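Researcher: We're reviewing a set of sequences before deciding which ones to prioritize for further study. For each one, I'd like a predicted 3D structure that I can look through quickly. This is DUF3786 domain-containing protein. If possible, include the structure in token form so it fits the rest of the review sheet.
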Amino acid sequence: MENTLRDEVAIEEKRKDKIPYDHYKALLKDNDPQVVSKKTTCPYNQETHAFTVTVMGSPYMVTYPQGDVTDSAGEDFDNYKLKTMILRYLINAKGAAATGENISYRDVSGGNAYFACFEGRCLKRFAFTFNYNVDGLKKAMGILDAEPQTIGDMSWRFEVINNMFMTVILWVGDDEFPPEAQILFDANFPTAFSAEDMAVMGDIFIPALKELGKK
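Model: Here's the predicted structure for DUF3786 domain-containing protein, in token form for your review sheet.
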């Protein structure tokens, strides 16, 4: 009974996640693919009519004008949060180059309103996930060719999606103090993603780091 209920909840969550994905699929066709490619730095193949978008080091294909997001082999997958983020980036990116300057989440318009969500889904989740898997985190950052930073006990700057960089900082916990984390964004991040997008970014990059750490 418990397993059945859990499966039903998972199916309902997938259904809800698919709604925004279908919405943005329908919007992609309203954008010129060459302009999209220039603004996002995501290559567009005129022969296959598809963009190549790289997220956390892995390439994904997006067909134009259909907006179907698949893996690099053209196979479908059901991570609709990731698919939606990819489409929103293609549609919303303004072409701002990475600056190398960091901003905090509260610096973003709307950041105060969504901070509780950001704190739970990004900061605390990152801290407690990798406080007990430091070796996996280091391995993942090596695979991403992330740039080590000098903040906290350990920190790295890495590319989340084409031309969009994030810096993660971890203070390892002990018997007296819980682990803490900070996540900073390149100053160009808000030109492509809203505060609401950024608040759930942990749903994208944290599972990806966990998987990379297992390789």
